[in-house]
């Protein structure tokens, strides 16, 4: 019998916990470490005991006994845990793709993977057609535009609150229009999709982004439009948010689990 892939999960918030729930009982994938800040150990311990009894909560990725690192905790976690793991030669899966909007950060991540002779995988998360967009780039892309539409409460705690009362909106309101790089920097917890689309396509500075607060929707609606030598496509996805975090689509969790299962599957698509 093939030994299971030993995983260090970085983050035990809404996404991390949901990943643990879906991996519970998977014979091929075994979470053996849950990495959180020191002040998060107490909260992570009962979650790990319930969903991954063999996992030990800690503040760092173990230097040995880990086959794969999975990040679900944001930019700081990538700096603190993913970069050193890559340099040691441990492959990593990254969910917080918006972090790569910081100048030079994508290159830094790639350099760490090269130094360790390994690979870092960026998951599509809440958006589809990333394979088609990346393939279309080979033939040449002319334009790519991403529109993100979410209910007003999903934009709370962001610059969208400046100068407007989100609870009082009665019609759709454009809260941001600009480049993917600007969107990911201003709305880091909401704009992972914009960064993913841009990295697969025309880049952070040439991908146009529009973010909308819409009281008429209860879903996270993502639309990608692309034109190029291949032709054109328009994709719209209406994603249900995670119950524990309305800023995140449930599909983000499924995308992470799919990436993990593909790494151990005999037949992957």
Automatic annotation (TrEMBL):
Q: Any coiled-coil ranges, and where?
A: none
Pathway the protein takes part in: Cofactor biosynthesis; NAD(+) biosynthesis; iminoaspartate from L-aspartate (dehydrogenase route): step 1/1
Decide whether keyword Zinc-finger is in the record: no
Q: Which residues form the Aspartate/homoserine dehydrogenase NAD-binding domain?
A: 11-120
UniProt keyword list: NAD, NADP, Oxidoreductase, Pyridine nucleotide biosynthesis
Catalytic positions?
222
What this protein catalyses is: L-aspartate + NAD(+) + H2O = oxaloacetate + NH4(+) + NADH + H(+); L-aspartate + NADP(+) + H2O = oxaloacetate + NH4(+) + NADPH + H(+)
Please list the GO biological process terms of this entry. Answer: NAD+ biosynthetic process
Name the top EC class.
oxidoreductase
Domain (Aspartate dehydrogenase) ranges: 170-257
InterPro entries cross-referenced by the UniProt entry: Asp/hSer_DH_NAD-bd (IPR005106), Asp_DH (IPR002811), Asp_DH_prok (IPR020626), L-Asp_DH (IPR011182), NAD(P)-bd_dom_sf (IPR036291)
* One GO MF term attached to the UniProt entry: oxidoreductase activity, acting on the CH-NH2 group of donors, NAD or NADP as acceptor
Q: What is its EC number?
A: 1.4.1.21
Extract the SUPFAM superfamilies matched here: Glyceraldehyde-3-phosphate dehydrogenase-like, C-terminal domain (SSF55347), NAD(P)-binding Rossmann-fold domains (SSF51735)
Q: Quote the record's binding site residues for NAD(+).
A: 126, 192
Please give the superkingdom of this protein's source: Bacteria
**Family affiliation:** Belongs to the L-aspartate dehydrogenase family.
Outline what the protein does. Specifically catalyzes the NAD or NADP-dependent dehydrogenation of L-aspartate to iminoaspartate.
Q: What else is known?
A: The iminoaspartate product is unstable in aqueous solution and can decompose to oxaloacetate and ammonia.
What is this protein's name? L-aspartate dehydrogenase
| Gene it is expressed from | nadX
């Amino acid at each position: 019998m093939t030994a299971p892939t030993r995983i260090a999960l970085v983050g035990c918030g809404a996404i991390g916990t949901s990943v643990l729930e879906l991996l519970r009982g998977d014979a091929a994938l075994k979470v053996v470490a849950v990495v959180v800040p020191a002040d998060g150990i107490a909260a992570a311990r009962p979650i790990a005991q319930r969903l991954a009894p063999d996992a030990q909560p800690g503040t760092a990725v173990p230097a040995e006994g880990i086959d794969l690192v999975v990040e679900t905790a944001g930019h700081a976690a990538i700096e603190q845990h993913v970069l050193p793991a890559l340099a040691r030669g441990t492959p990593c899966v990254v969910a917080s793709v918006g972090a790569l909007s910081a100048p030079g950060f994508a290159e830094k991540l790639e350099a760490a993977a090269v130094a360790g002779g390994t690979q870092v995988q960026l998951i599509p998360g809440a958006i589809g057609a990333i394979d088609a967009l990346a393939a279309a780039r080979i033939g040449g892309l002319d334009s790519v535009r991403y529109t993100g539409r979410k209910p007003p409460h999903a934009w709370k705690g962001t610059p969208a609150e400046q100068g407007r009362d989100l609870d009082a909106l009665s019609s759709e309101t454009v809260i941001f229009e600009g480049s993917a790089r600007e969107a990911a920097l201003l709305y880091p917890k909401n704009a992972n999709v914009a960064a993913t689309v841009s990295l697969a396509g025309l880049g952070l500075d040439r991908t146009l982004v529009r973010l909308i607060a819409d009281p008429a929707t209860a879903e996270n609606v993502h639309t990608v439009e692309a034109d190029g030598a291949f032709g054109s496509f328009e994709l719209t996805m209406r994603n249900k948010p995670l119950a524990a975090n309305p800023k995140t689509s449930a599909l983000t969790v499924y995308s992470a689990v799919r990436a993990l299962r593909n790494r151990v599957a005999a037949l992957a698509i």
